[in-house]
Amino acid sequence: MPAAVRARGQGGGVFVADAAWTLHSDTRAFRVGDVLTVGLDETTQASKTADTQYAKDSSVSVSPLVIGGKSKKTGIELGADRSFSGSATSTQQNALSGSITVVVHEVMGNGLLRVAGEKSLYLNQGEEFVRLAGYVRAADIDTDNRVSSQRIANARIVYSGRGDLADANNAGWLSRFFNSPWMPF
């Protein structure tokens, strides 16, 4: 949480050094406690394909036994064939758009602003959360006090939900068990 700034008593002039609104500056965030609007412009797309095949053949046979100059047929032969063929394809696409207003929690020595914020939306079938944290350069903030999520360093953006709709999109415990690495079959 940002540190609260105590009001100091001043007398006299029109200029107040710690005032948030002045006649000669813009309203961009640059201090602890200032707010900043982040435009969420995230789109990801990933694709992966794997194909694996291998085969191994082996055989063993025992030569006929020779006892006292006579060969005896043993009829022992072993053979093994092993093969494996596997393939997998995975494709994922995600998009997140909107905006969230965050608070400046720290101004670092190099001028970076550490920001974090959360938005909670209660919809008719549950609750949705958007959380964002990261570092913003003051130079990337536009005159409307906005910055794109593409310009946030070490951005951590979380979008999740709770409620009936979120529960319906999750597999049950039995399905998770049968699809887990612990299931040997």
Low-pLDDT sequence parts? none
Mean pLDDT: 79
The order of strands across the largest sheet is 7-1-4-5-6-8
Strand element count: 8
Beta strand %: over 45%
Terminal Cα separation, in Å? 50 Å
Q: What can be said about this structure in brief?
A:
With 185 residues, this protein is mainly β. The protein has helices at residues 164-168, 173-178, and strands spanning 35-61, 65-67, 70-72, 77-107, 113-123, 126-136, 146-148, 153-163.
Describe this structure in words.
Keywords: Bacterial flagellum, Cell outer membrane, Cell projection, Cilium, Flagellum, Membrane, Signal. The chain has 185 residues and is mainly beta. The chain has 2 domains: 92 residues, no CATH class; 43 residues, no CATH class. Helix content is 6%, strand content 54%. The strands form 2 sheets. A 6-stranded mixed β-sheet has the order 7-1-4-5-6-8. Strands 2-3 form a two-stranded antiparallel ribbon. The model has no long low-confidence stretch (mean pLDDT 79).
